[in-house]
Amino acid sequence: MAEVVLVTGGSGYIAGWCIAELLRGGYEVRTTVRDEGKKQAVVDAVSTVVDPAGRLGFAVADLTADDGWDAAVKGVDRVLHVASPLGGADPRDPDALIAPARDGALRVLRAATRAGVGRVVMTSAANAASPSSYATEGVTDETLWTDPDDPTLIPYRRSKTLAERAAWDFMDSHPGRTELTTVLPGAVFGPILTTATLGSVGIVGRMISGAMSGIPRIGLEIVDVRDLVDVHLRAMTSPDAAGQRFLATGEFTWMTEMARILRDGLGADGRRVSTRQVPDFAVRLAARFRDPSLREITPALGRRNRHSTDKARRVLGWRPRPAGETVLDCARSLIEHGAVQHV
Question: In this model, does residue 317 exceed pLDDT 90?
């Protein structure tokens, strides 16, 4: 009999690919949605790459409430907790981000340990294993924990750190059959299954459409969504992954490099991509006087810190693809799905 894997937040970008690859791998999959009305959208998205008939089921459960989680994990062998309840939160309010992320993870773990689930793989973020200072250069690994008390941290980084820390603390105090593994991705790009949940790939869409007329001096550790799912599945099944953190970042790539990759690789479809880099001072001035939303990115200007994926490569045999391939596949997928307006 095939193992049953629960994937949280089935309508999400990463979750959709997790569901698809699990089905391709012969697993039976159950996924959570916040309401019944989201089921068909998940089926439609997954159906673009694999037939889910008879092997995909649903449970209604919300990370912000206790109801439904025991039913969601009943009869489940493993859990991929990839969902995050941050979509509607005000990113400027620390509590609006921290409480849902932390409490949602604990709801999943409580239900999983009660049900005796074999392993939970939780998606954290590389931002939870980063030096507090964005100015720090060098390479860090999973042994580093971001300091959540650093007053310079943006709320998102603090929320991801505290949520993962709470998960490990919970497991330390709940010995039993259930094992925890965490995966800490970088900036996730790659092909889409649906235009309904674009996530971070919207950045590429803005570049292609010409909406981003200037590029800030920001570097991203780009990981392909397909490679991120691959490392989740490896972490789910490898005996050596139990109780471990795994960074899953990709090549460090400046956004201006991304722009050049798109402009050079897309032909006529890349004609609107701007490669003009905006000076740091201009971004800071705009954040202060014209666009407060830019305040979230100003600490990252010029940051060169990178993360080592040696552990995932050594323990799990993980091999991510080049960033340029991911960026172009992402762009072509957006164009194919009609997610970019060309004039």
Answer: yes
Which segment of 106-120, 127-141, 174-188, 226-240 scores lowest on mean pLDDT?
127-141
Rounded distance, CA 204 to CA 258, Å? Answer: 8
- pTM of the model as a whole: 0.94
Alpha carbon distance 67, 269 (integer Å):
47
Is pLDDT at 91 greater than 60 in this prediction? no
Extents of the domains making up the chain = 4-191+223-250+306-320
What would be the CATH architecture of the domain defined by 4-191+223-250+306-320? 3-Layer(aba) Sandwich (3.40)
Joined tokens for residue 223:
């990981």
Report the side by side order of strands in the sheet with 251-254: 187-189, 219-224, 251-254
Q: pLDDT-derived band of residue 96, with 50, 70 and 90 as boundaries? A: confident
At residue 306, φ and ψ (nearest 5 deg) are -130, 165
Treating both helix axes as pointing N-terminal to C-terminal, what angle do 155-172 and 94-115 enclose, rounded to 10 degrees?
20
